[in-house]
Design a protein that fits this description.
alpha+beta; Aminopeptidase; 5-stranded mixed β-sheet; 41% helix; binds coenzyme A
Length: 205
């Protein structure tokens, strides 16, 4: 069941510090639950990268990167973005997805996970992309927990770089046709249902 009273909207420049802090909370927690807490440098690189791409969104008015945030009670509780596919994803997909937009930074605040928020963010982003005539996206993950969730949501990965992160730690890529993916979320993320739950979608620039 999706948490009620959520607003999905574009980020605002004046909340940049709050967005950076949100990324830091999610990354810290994610590394911990994936047993990667000791990888301080990788964690710092991940945070740096997220800070860089949210700034790319502001710098290009959403052209180079397009972020959406989820807000609940005035607090940022989720994020998602779309942009060019990252180098690792492209390499892992044997250069077959270099022109396919990547959906990434699907982050949900640890206190709000497992309540349907990622599904709502994905469905809203997919819908926004579909309206822009995008028909397919890709998504990758090296986190075991997220891999389990994306396999549940999108099926087996389209590409798998076996042992990329070490023995038994793979990197996974999903190539996702949007029509099919939108169908998966349509019953739960129908506008009438969302309206009843106090969920607002304000994704335009
Ligand atoms: C991955 C993440 C975004 C999922 O967000 P979420 O809001 O908890 O996901 P949802 O509640 O929308 O769940 C989506 C589906 O996965 C399932 N699911 C979610 N968490 C699960 C878990 N820990 N174990 C098993 N299934 C899970 C849900 O039941 C749901 O399935 P359904 O549609 O059949 O009901 C969130 O866990 C997160 O932010 N993790 C840390 C950051 C991260 O790793 N992001 C991904 C980077 S690639």
């Amino acid at each position: 069941m999706i948490t009620s009273n959520i607003v999905i909207r574009r980020p605002r420049m004046e909340e940049l510090n709050r967005i950076d802090a949100f990324f830091a909370i999610v990354i810290e927690h994610t590394f911990l639950v994936n047993g990667l807490g000791a990888l301080a440098d990788t964690k710092a690189e991940e945070l740096d990268y997220k800070q860089k791409i949210i700034r790319a969104d502001f710098a290009t008015g959403g052209e180079e990167r397009f972020f959406l945030l989820a807000e609940h009670g005035g607090e940022i509780v989720g994020s998602i973005e779309c942009g060019p596919a990252n180098d690792l994803l492209v390499a892992c997909a044997k250069n077959e997805l270099q022109d396919v937009p990547e959906v990434g930074t699907v982050f949900v605040h640890p206190h709000h996970q497992r309540r349907g928020l990622a599904s709502l963010l994905l469905s809203t982003m997919f819908d926004a992309l579909w309206r822009r005539n995008v028909k397919e996206v890709c998504l990758d993950s090296g986190y075991k927990e997220a891999q389990r969730i994306w396999t549940h949501v999108f099926g087996e990965p389209t590409y798998l770089a076996k042992d990329y992160w070490g023995d038994g730690s793979h990197h996974m890529v999903w190539h996702i046709p949007l029509k099919e993916a939108l169908g998966r979320f349509s019953s739960r993320c129908d506008s009438v249902i969302l309206d009843k739950m106090g969920i607002q979608l304000a994704v335009q620039d």
